[in-house]
Design brief:
Number of helices: 3
Number of strands: 10
Oligomer: single chain
Largest sheet: 8 strands, antiparallel
Radius of gyration: 17 Å
Length: 166
């Protein structure tokens, strides 16, 4: 709480992944080989994101309104990437095909939740799709469906918001 206003601090539970600067915030670490992006060193966060839950993926339609869908996803802590498998013709993929598309993934279980936000791109390159499939099978215990036109959405996470993961 901010004692002056008695309102909750809006930055509480938020980790911005800064793009520069020599100092790391307390509880954060640099990604190997990447001096620009940082991730929180939270075992609880990594554990929660490894649990086989679904999340909501939010993208923006061309008119600016939110498009929210339930998805399965994977989290690559080392690369700072969230991956979602889908079909290239879906609304979510079309929304992100526009240059500079951003997305937010929110996994919530009871009173615990985490949101991963960042710039998202859609890829149909076989190696990238295969990596998404491999990570999906590992997280969820079975391979994903294999529809024609499958692509992978990769979100380069630059902001993490969470609550009750400590």
């Amino acid at each position: 709480m901010n004692p002056a206003s008695r309102r909750p601090d809006p930055s509480a539970g938020t980790t911005r992944l800064p793009t520069g600067g020599p100092r790391l915030p307390e509880g954060a670490r640099r990604l190997p080989g990447d001096t620009a992006r940082r991730l929180p060193a939270a075992t609880a966060l990594a554990g929660f994101l490894a649990e086989p839950h679904v999340a909501t993926l939010t993208t923006l339609r061309p008119d600016g309104s939110p498009h929210v869908v339930a998805v399965r996803f994977t989290w690559d802590e080392v690369a700072g990437l969230a991956r979602v498998l889908t079909i290239g013709s879906t609304r979510k993929a079309r929304n992100l095909a526009r240059q500079g598309g951003r997305a937010a993934l929110c996994q919530a279980v009871g009173f615990r939740w985490v949101t991963l936000e960042g710039v998202a791109t859609v890829h149909d390159v076989p190696d990238r799709v295969s990596e998404g499939v491999r990570r999906y099978a590992k997280r969820y215990g079975s391979p994903p469906p294999h529809p024609p036109g499958r692509v992978v959405i990769e979100i380069v996470v630059d902001r993490i918001t969470q609550l009750n993961l400590d």
